Amino acid sequence: MKIETRCVRAGYEPEEATGAVNVPIYATSTYAYRRFGEHRGWEYSRTANPTRSALERAVAELEGGADAVAFASGLAAIDAVTNLLQPGDRIVASDNLYGGTYRLLETITARHGIATTFVDASTSDLLSAAVTGTTRLILLETPTNPLMQLADIAAAARIAHERGILLVVDNTFLTPVFQRPLELGADLVVHSTTKYLNGHSDSVGGIVVAGTHELGERLHTIQNNVGAIMGPFDAYLVLRGLRTLAVRMAAHEANGRALASMLAHRRDVARVLYPGLPGHPQHDLASRQQGGFGAMISFDLGTLARARAFCDATGIFLLAESLGGVESLVCHPATMTHAAVPPAERERLGIGDGLLRLSVGIEALEDLEADLVQALDAAGKA
User: Fold this and answer.
1) Which CATH number does 245-380 carry?
2) pTM of the predicted model, to two decimals?
3) Is 98 one of the catalytic residues?
4) What is the β-pairing status of strands 67-71 and 206-210?
5) What are 159-200's pLDDT values in tens digits?
6) Annotation says 187 is catalytic
7) Catalytic residue among 67, 95, 152, 170
8) How far is CA 316 from the centre of its chain?
C-alpha cells in the first residue's frame, strides 16, 4: 500500500462490537480478570493500554519497524533509548541537536555514567573517527535542529554495524512520509509525536520505533519500569493526526519550498538553511535519502535587533516553541529552543543571535509570503 493509504489505515481495524472506525479512548487504569490467574490480555495501563497499543502498531507500520513504544514526550522517548546502555558506555551524537536533547545528554544521562561525544555528523569520516571502544550508540538528527544539516544514514549505519553498536535517528522533521531511516539501516527511529505526527499542537508525546522485536521488548520493559507512558487521550489525538499526515506533509512542503526560495532571493537575508534549495551543500544527499524536503527553514538576519523586530512584526507566523502543527510558527533558537546550549557552543555551531527558524504551516501561500515580506521590511528598519 502507498503511504497515503497506510496513514489512514495503519494500526486499527473496525472494532468488532460496534464497528467503530476510530480507535476508542480506553480511559481506564486497570482491567478485570476473567477469573483467578486469567486476564484478557490487559492488566494495567502503565504496562499497556489498547489506545496506546494501536498507536504503537500504526507508527511501527509506517516506519517499517517490528515494534514501537510510545512515551509521555519526545525527551522521555530519547531518555528510554539511553536506558538501553550501561554506566561506562558512550554515545556519539550530532553536535547540532535540539537543545532539550543536548541538555538531557549533558545532565541526566551523564549522571548515569553515560558520556556523550558531540560531532559534526554531516561528515561521515568525522562520525567514524568519534567512535571509540566504549561507544555503544550513535544518535543522529537529520535534518538537524535548527541548522538543517544532514547525516548520511546509510553510511552511519555501516559505521555503527561494523562496530556492533546501535544507530538511532530522530525523524521528527521529516516523518515516515519523507524519510524512513530503518530502510537505510538504522536500528531505532525516534519521533516527538508532539510535532508532525500529531500535527495540531494539542498533544505532547514521543515514540521509539524498533527495527527488531528484541529491541522493542527491551524498550517496552523500560517503558513499564520507568512509567513515562503516553496516556490514552494523547494516543488518540496522535492517531487522529496520522490519518491526515500524508496530505498535511505535502501541503507543508509545498509552502516550505516556495518560502525557502523566496527568502533565498532576498538581499536582506544573510543565509537560508533548507536542504530543498539546489544551492544547499547537501541537496544531493537530501534528494537521495529523502522522499521530500519538509517545511522547516532556518535563516539568518545577522543581528539580535533585526531578529527581534522580525518576530514582533509577524502576524500569521506565531512566535512560539515547537513545530509541525498546521499553523505557521517562528522561533528564535538562541533564546528559545537552544537556550540550554552554552553561548560559546552556540557560536561555534553557528546558532547566532540573528538566526530564526520557521515551521511552515498549511495556510495559503500568498498570505504566508505577505507576512514574511512585511516582517522582513520591519526588520530592515531595526
Assistant:
1) 3.90.1150.10
2) 0.96
3) yes
4) antiparallel
5) 999 999 999 999 999 999 999 999 999 999 999 999 999 999
6) no
7) 170
8) 23
